[in-house]
Amino acid sequence: MTDLVEWLATQTDDRELAGAILSMAAAGVEIGAVLREAPIAGQTGLAGSDNVQGEAQKALDVISNDIVLNHLRKNPAISILVSEELDEAVDLSIQGRFNIATDPLDGSSNLDVNVTVGTIFSVLDAAGGLLQKGTAQLAAGYVAYGPATSLVLRVMGDTSVFTLDAGGRWVQTVVAAKVPEASGEFAINTARERFWDAATTGYVKESVAGETGPAGKRYNMRWVGSMVADIHRILMRGGIFLYPLDSETVSKGGRLRLLYEANPMAWLVEGAGGKSTTGRKGILDVEPTGIHQRVPVILGSAEEVRRVEAWYARA
Ligand SMILES: O=P(O)(O)OC[C@H]1O[C@](O)(COP(=O)(O)O)[C@@H](O)[C@@H]1O
Ligand SMILES: [Mg+2]
Ligand SMILES: [Mg+2]
Protein backbone atom coordinates (compact mmCIF):
# COMPACT_ATOMS: atom_id res chain seq x y z
CA MET A 1 0.00 0.00 0.00
CA THR A 2 1.20 3.49 -0.82
CA ASP A 3 2.33 5.58 2.11
CA LEU A 4 2.43 9.35 2.47
CA VAL A 5 6.09 9.76 1.51
CA GLU A 6 5.65 7.67 -1.65
CA TRP A 7 2.49 9.56 -2.61
CA LEU A 8 4.12 12.96 -2.09
CA ALA A 9 6.88 11.94 -4.51
CA THR A 10 4.17 11.46 -7.17
CA GLN A 11 2.62 14.88 -6.48
CA THR A 12 5.62 17.20 -6.42
CA ASP A 13 9.31 17.28 -7.33
CA ASP A 14 9.80 19.93 -4.66
CA ARG A 15 11.23 18.02 -1.71
CA GLU A 16 10.97 21.06 0.56
CA LEU A 17 7.26 21.37 -0.17
CA ALA A 18 6.85 17.68 0.61
CA GLY A 19 8.87 18.31 3.79
CA ALA A 20 6.54 21.14 4.84
CA ILE A 21 3.55 18.79 4.48
CA LEU A 22 5.38 16.03 6.37
CA SER A 23 6.05 18.45 9.25
CA MET A 24 2.30 19.11 9.55
CA ALA A 25 1.57 15.38 9.30
CA ALA A 26 4.06 14.72 12.11
CA ALA A 27 2.42 17.43 14.23
CA GLY A 28 -0.90 15.68 13.60
CA VAL A 29 0.49 12.36 14.86
CA GLU A 30 1.67 14.04 18.05
CA ILE A 31 -1.57 15.99 18.60
CA GLY A 32 -3.51 12.75 18.07
CA ALA A 33 -1.43 11.02 20.75
CA VAL A 34 -2.12 13.84 23.22
CA LEU A 35 -5.86 13.80 22.47
CA ARG A 36 -6.06 10.01 22.83
CA GLU A 37 -4.92 10.20 26.46
CA ALA A 38 -6.29 13.64 27.35
CA PRO A 39 -9.07 12.36 29.66
CA ILE A 40 -6.51 10.23 31.58
CA ALA A 41 -4.24 13.24 31.93
CA GLY A 42 -7.21 15.23 33.24
CA GLN A 43 -7.24 17.45 30.19
CA THR A 44 -10.85 18.48 29.83
CA GLY A 45 -10.19 20.78 26.93
CA LEU A 46 -11.47 23.78 28.82
CA ALA A 47 -9.09 26.70 29.16
CA GLY A 48 -8.06 27.30 32.76
CA SER A 49 -9.27 23.91 33.99
CA ASP A 50 -7.46 21.90 36.68
CA ASN A 51 -6.19 18.33 36.44
CA VAL A 52 -6.74 15.67 39.13
CA GLN A 53 -3.77 17.03 41.10
CA GLY A 54 -5.42 20.43 41.09
CA GLU A 55 -2.80 21.88 38.73
CA ALA A 56 -3.85 24.41 36.13
CA GLN A 57 -4.00 22.89 32.66
CA LYS A 58 -3.25 24.48 29.34
CA ALA A 59 -6.15 24.27 26.94
CA LEU A 60 -5.70 21.60 24.28
CA ASP A 61 -5.96 24.33 21.64
CA VAL A 62 -2.81 25.90 23.09
CA ILE A 63 -1.04 22.55 23.43
CA SER A 64 -1.89 21.69 19.81
CA ASN A 65 -0.62 25.07 18.68
CA ASP A 66 2.66 24.52 20.58
CA ILE A 67 3.07 21.11 18.93
CA VAL A 68 2.62 22.60 15.45
CA LEU A 69 5.03 25.40 16.30
CA ASN A 70 7.69 22.95 17.56
CA HIS A 71 7.49 20.86 14.40
CA LEU A 72 7.67 23.88 12.11
CA ARG A 73 10.57 25.43 14.05
CA LYS A 74 12.57 22.30 13.18
CA ASN A 75 11.92 22.81 9.46
CA PRO A 76 14.07 25.58 7.91
CA ALA A 77 11.80 25.67 4.84
CA ILE A 78 9.02 27.35 6.85
CA SER A 79 9.10 31.13 6.83
CA ILE A 80 5.99 32.28 8.74
CA LEU A 81 3.23 30.58 10.73
CA VAL A 82 -0.27 32.02 11.01
CA SER A 83 -2.42 30.27 13.61
CA GLU A 84 -5.91 30.68 15.00
CA GLU A 85 -4.29 30.57 18.44
CA LEU A 86 -1.78 33.39 17.79
CA ASP A 87 -2.83 37.02 17.40
CA GLU A 88 0.24 37.82 15.30
CA ALA A 89 2.03 35.82 12.62
CA VAL A 90 5.24 34.16 13.86
CA ASP A 91 8.51 34.48 11.92
CA LEU A 92 10.29 31.14 11.85
CA SER A 93 13.08 31.01 9.28
CA ILE A 94 14.38 33.90 7.16
CA GLN A 95 15.34 31.55 4.33
CA GLY A 96 12.01 29.71 4.55
CA ARG A 97 10.15 29.24 1.26
CA PHE A 98 6.69 28.47 2.66
CA ASN A 99 4.13 30.09 4.90
CA ILE A 100 1.69 27.90 6.78
CA ALA A 101 -1.72 28.92 8.12
CA THR A 102 -3.32 26.56 10.62
CA ASP A 103 -6.28 25.93 12.85
CA PRO A 104 -4.35 23.61 15.21
CA LEU A 105 -7.48 22.25 16.86
CA ASP A 106 -10.79 22.65 15.07
CA GLY A 107 -14.05 21.84 16.79
CA SER A 108 -12.56 22.11 20.26
CA SER A 109 -15.98 22.47 21.90
CA ASN A 110 -16.35 18.74 21.07
CA LEU A 111 -13.32 17.70 23.12
CA ASP A 112 -15.20 17.20 26.36
CA VAL A 113 -17.56 14.72 24.71
CA ASN A 114 -14.96 12.71 22.74
CA VAL A 115 -16.30 13.67 19.33
CA THR A 116 -14.07 14.09 16.25
CA VAL A 117 -11.89 17.21 16.12
CA GLY A 118 -9.12 18.12 13.70
CA THR A 119 -6.11 20.13 12.59
CA ILE A 120 -6.45 22.18 9.38
CA PHE A 121 -3.59 23.72 7.39
CA SER A 122 -2.75 25.62 4.22
CA VAL A 123 0.68 25.95 2.58
CA LEU A 124 1.56 29.12 0.64
CA ASP A 125 4.62 30.32 -1.24
CA ALA A 126 6.38 32.72 1.16
CA ALA A 127 7.29 35.00 -1.76
CA GLY A 128 3.58 35.90 -2.11
CA GLY A 129 3.25 37.09 1.51
CA LEU A 130 0.61 36.14 4.04
CA LEU A 131 -2.45 37.51 2.34
CA GLN A 132 -2.92 35.39 -0.77
CA LYS A 133 -6.09 34.13 -2.36
CA GLY A 134 -6.98 30.47 -1.88
CA THR A 135 -6.22 29.79 -5.55
CA ALA A 136 -2.53 30.43 -4.70
CA GLN A 137 -2.33 27.57 -2.20
CA LEU A 138 0.48 25.09 -2.90
CA ALA A 139 -1.10 22.42 -0.73
CA ALA A 140 -3.70 22.03 1.99
CA GLY A 141 -4.86 19.34 4.35
CA TYR A 142 -6.49 18.36 7.57
CA VAL A 143 -6.09 15.64 10.15
CA ALA A 144 -9.35 14.24 11.57
CA TYR A 145 -8.99 12.63 15.01
CA GLY A 146 -11.92 10.22 14.90
CA PRO A 147 -12.39 6.46 15.28
CA ALA A 148 -9.46 6.33 12.84
CA THR A 149 -6.96 9.17 12.44
CA SER A 150 -7.26 10.42 8.86
CA LEU A 151 -5.06 12.80 6.91
CA VAL A 152 -6.71 14.41 3.90
CA LEU A 153 -4.32 16.10 1.50
CA ARG A 154 -4.15 17.87 -1.81
CA VAL A 155 -1.11 19.34 -3.47
CA MET A 156 -2.24 20.34 -7.01
CA GLY A 157 -4.13 17.31 -8.27
CA ASP A 158 -6.59 14.97 -6.60
CA THR A 159 -7.54 14.92 -2.94
CA SER A 160 -6.26 11.80 -1.17
CA VAL A 161 -7.01 10.25 2.20
CA PHE A 162 -4.43 8.53 4.44
CA THR A 163 -5.04 6.56 7.61
CA LEU A 164 -2.57 6.35 10.49
CA ASP A 165 -1.62 2.74 11.20
CA ALA A 166 -0.55 1.29 14.55
CA GLY A 167 3.11 1.81 13.62
CA GLY A 168 2.64 5.55 13.01
CA ARG A 169 2.70 5.28 9.20
CA TRP A 170 0.23 7.19 7.01
CA VAL A 171 -1.25 4.64 4.58
CA GLN A 172 -3.23 5.84 1.56
CA THR A 173 -6.81 4.58 1.89
CA VAL A 174 -8.58 6.73 -0.74
CA VAL A 175 -6.73 7.43 -3.98
CA ALA A 176 -8.81 10.24 -5.45
CA ALA A 177 -11.70 11.25 -3.24
CA LYS A 178 -14.87 12.16 -5.13
CA VAL A 179 -17.60 14.24 -3.53
CA PRO A 180 -20.81 12.90 -5.07
CA GLU A 181 -22.32 15.47 -7.45
CA ALA A 182 -25.74 15.26 -5.77
CA SER A 183 -26.71 14.53 -2.19
CA GLY A 184 -29.61 14.44 0.22
CA GLU A 185 -27.81 15.82 3.30
CA PHE A 186 -27.22 19.35 4.45
CA ALA A 187 -25.24 20.64 7.44
CA ILE A 188 -26.07 23.95 9.05
CA ASN A 189 -26.61 25.21 12.59
CA THR A 190 -30.40 25.54 12.39
CA ALA A 191 -30.52 27.22 15.81
CA ARG A 192 -29.34 30.32 13.93
CA GLU A 193 -32.40 30.38 11.65
CA ARG A 194 -33.65 33.69 13.02
CA PHE A 195 -30.41 35.37 11.79
CA TRP A 196 -30.38 33.82 8.30
CA ASP A 197 -30.60 35.77 5.05
CA ALA A 198 -33.29 35.10 2.42
CA ALA A 199 -31.06 32.80 0.34
CA THR A 200 -30.19 30.49 3.25
CA THR A 201 -33.79 30.42 4.45
CA GLY A 202 -34.97 29.67 0.90
CA TYR A 203 -32.50 26.83 0.39
CA VAL A 204 -33.23 25.15 3.73
CA LYS A 205 -37.03 25.55 3.44
CA GLU A 206 -36.89 24.04 -0.05
CA SER A 207 -34.82 21.11 1.27
CA VAL A 208 -36.97 20.28 4.30
CA ALA A 209 -40.10 20.37 2.12
CA GLY A 210 -39.06 16.89 0.92
CA GLU A 211 -40.28 14.89 -2.08
CA THR A 212 -43.32 17.04 -2.78
CA GLY A 213 -41.43 20.35 -2.39
CA PRO A 214 -39.51 22.29 -5.07
CA ALA A 215 -36.30 20.22 -4.54
CA GLY A 216 -38.31 17.07 -5.26
CA LYS A 217 -36.43 14.88 -2.82
CA ARG A 218 -36.05 14.10 0.86
CA TYR A 219 -33.13 15.56 2.86
CA ASN A 220 -31.47 14.71 6.15
CA MET A 221 -29.69 17.23 8.36
CA ARG A 222 -26.34 16.58 10.10
CA TRP A 223 -24.32 19.03 12.25
CA VAL A 224 -21.38 17.81 14.32
CA GLY A 225 -20.23 21.30 15.26
CA SER A 226 -16.70 20.39 14.24
CA MET A 227 -15.94 21.58 10.71
CA VAL A 228 -13.37 18.85 10.13
CA ALA A 229 -15.89 16.14 11.00
CA ASP A 230 -18.68 17.70 8.91
CA ILE A 231 -16.41 18.23 5.90
CA HIS A 232 -14.93 14.74 6.18
CA ARG A 233 -18.40 13.22 6.02
CA ILE A 234 -19.22 15.39 2.98
CA LEU A 235 -15.95 14.45 1.28
CA MET A 236 -16.65 10.76 1.75
CA ARG A 237 -20.39 10.57 1.00
CA GLY A 238 -21.57 13.99 -0.21
CA GLY A 239 -23.66 16.77 1.24
CA ILE A 240 -23.34 20.48 1.78
CA PHE A 241 -21.91 22.51 4.67
CA LEU A 242 -23.18 26.02 5.27
CA TYR A 243 -21.92 28.67 7.68
CA PRO A 244 -23.39 31.62 5.78
CA LEU A 245 -23.24 35.29 6.54
CA ASP A 246 -26.15 36.08 8.84
CA SER A 247 -27.42 39.15 10.64
CA GLU A 248 -25.43 38.29 13.77
CA THR A 249 -22.08 37.60 12.03
CA VAL A 250 -22.38 40.21 9.27
CA SER A 251 -20.29 42.84 11.09
CA LYS A 252 -17.41 40.34 11.41
CA GLY A 253 -17.72 39.09 7.81
CA GLY A 254 -18.88 35.60 8.85
CA ARG A 255 -17.97 32.99 11.46
CA LEU A 256 -15.23 30.83 9.99
CA ARG A 257 -11.72 32.04 9.13
CA LEU A 258 -10.59 32.43 5.55
CA LEU A 259 -6.89 31.54 5.71
CA TYR A 260 -6.95 28.44 7.89
CA GLU A 261 -10.51 27.09 7.74
CA ALA A 262 -12.32 28.15 4.54
CA ASN A 263 -9.45 28.17 2.02
CA PRO A 264 -7.89 24.79 2.86
CA MET A 265 -11.31 23.11 3.05
CA ALA A 266 -12.41 24.67 -0.26
CA TRP A 267 -9.11 23.53 -1.86
CA LEU A 268 -9.68 19.95 -0.69
CA VAL A 269 -13.37 19.81 -1.62
CA GLU A 270 -12.72 21.28 -5.10
CA GLY A 271 -9.88 18.77 -5.59
CA ALA A 272 -12.51 16.08 -5.05
CA GLY A 273 -14.91 17.57 -7.61
CA GLY A 274 -17.05 19.55 -5.16
CA LYS A 275 -17.74 23.29 -5.17
CA SER A 276 -17.30 26.17 -2.73
CA THR A 277 -18.74 29.66 -2.47
CA THR A 278 -19.41 32.51 -0.09
CA GLY A 279 -22.81 32.70 -1.77
CA ARG A 280 -21.59 35.59 -3.93
CA LYS A 281 -18.22 34.34 -5.21
CA GLY A 282 -15.87 31.38 -5.02
CA ILE A 283 -14.17 31.09 -1.62
CA LEU A 284 -10.79 30.59 -3.32
CA ASP A 285 -11.22 33.94 -5.13
CA VAL A 286 -11.69 36.01 -1.97
CA GLU A 287 -8.87 38.56 -1.60
CA PRO A 288 -7.70 38.36 2.03
CA THR A 289 -7.33 41.60 3.96
CA GLY A 290 -6.26 40.22 7.34
CA ILE A 291 -4.75 37.03 8.73
CA HIS A 292 -7.78 36.25 10.93
CA GLN A 293 -10.36 37.42 8.39
CA ARG A 294 -13.72 35.66 8.51
CA VAL A 295 -15.79 34.63 5.52
CA PRO A 296 -19.14 32.95 4.76
CA VAL A 297 -18.59 29.28 3.92
CA ILE A 298 -20.77 27.09 1.70
CA LEU A 299 -19.19 23.96 0.22
CA GLY A 300 -19.78 20.39 -0.81
CA SER A 301 -21.67 18.50 -3.52
CA ALA A 302 -21.67 20.61 -6.71
CA GLU A 303 -25.41 20.33 -7.38
CA GLU A 304 -26.31 21.51 -3.86
CA VAL A 305 -23.84 24.41 -3.96
CA ARG A 306 -25.31 25.47 -7.31
CA ARG A 307 -28.80 25.47 -5.73
CA VAL A 308 -27.58 27.80 -2.97
CA GLU A 309 -25.85 30.04 -5.55
CA ALA A 310 -29.12 30.24 -7.47
CA TRP A 311 -30.84 31.46 -4.29
CA TYR A 312 -28.16 34.13 -3.80
CA ALA A 313 -28.50 35.22 -7.45
CA ARG A 314 -32.23 35.75 -6.83
CA ALA A 315 -31.93 37.32 -3.35
O1 LIG B 1 -20.96 26.74 17.42
P1 LIG B 1 -21.49 26.49 16.05
O2 LIG B 1 -22.32 27.61 15.51
O3 LIG B 1 -22.17 25.16 15.93
O4 LIG B 1 -20.18 26.46 15.09
C1 LIG B 1 -19.44 25.33 14.86
C2 LIG B 1 -18.29 25.68 14.00
O5 LIG B 1 -17.31 26.41 14.74
C3 LIG B 1 -16.07 25.74 14.76
O6 LIG B 1 -16.02 24.95 15.92
C4 LIG B 1 -14.97 26.77 14.76
O7 LIG B 1 -13.68 26.23 14.88
P2 LIG B 1 -12.81 26.23 16.26
O8 LIG B 1 -13.30 25.13 17.13
O9 LIG B 1 -11.44 25.99 15.69
O10 LIG B 1 -12.94 27.60 16.86
C5 LIG B 1 -16.14 24.82 13.52
O11 LIG B 1 -15.34 23.69 13.67
C6 LIG B 1 -17.60 24.45 13.48
O12 LIG B 1 -18.05 24.13 12.20
MG1 LIG C 1 -11.90 25.89 13.58
MG1 LIG D 1 -9.50 25.97 16.48
Helix/strand-derived class? alpha+beta
Task: Name the bound molecules.
Answer: 1,6-di-O-phosphono-beta-D-fructofuranose, magnesium ion
Strand order within the widest beta sheet: 2-1-3-4-5-6-7-8
From the spread of the alpha carbons, the general shape counts as: globular
Helix-strand string: HHHEEEEEEEEEHEHEEHEEEH
Task: Report low-confidence residues grouped into runs of 5 or more.
Answer: none
Compute the separation of the termini in Å. Answer: 49 Å
Mean pLDDT: 95
Largest sheet: 8 strands, mixed
Number of strands: 15
| Number of distinct helices | 7
Task: Summarize this structure briefly.
Its EC number is 3.1.3.11. This is Fructose-1,6-bisphosphatase class 1. This protein is of the alpha+beta class and 315 residues long.
Description:
- This protein has 315 residues and is of the alpha+beta class.
- The protein has 7 helices and 15 strands.
- An 8-stranded mixed beta sheet has the order 2-1-3-4-5-6-7-8, with helices on both faces. A 5-stranded mixed beta sheet has the order 10-9-11-15-13, with helices on both faces. The chain has a two-stranded antiparallel ribbon with strand order 12-14.
- A hairpin with a 5-residue loop joins strand 6 and strand 7 (160-164).
- Helix 2 runs antiparallel to helix 3 (60-73) and helix 4 (198-208) packs across helix 7 (302-314).
- The longest helix is centred in the N-terminal third of the chain and has 23 residues, at 15-37.
- Bound molecules: 1,6-di-O-phosphono-beta-D-fructofuranose (FBP) and magnesium ion (2 copies).
- Residues 84, 103, 106-109, 189, 225-227 line the site of 1,6-di-O-phosphono-beta-D-fructofuranose.
- Pathway: Carbohydrate biosynthesis; Calvin cycle.
- Its EC number is 3.1.3.11.
- Keywords: Carbohydrate metabolism, Cytoplasm, Hydrolase, Magnesium, Metal-binding.
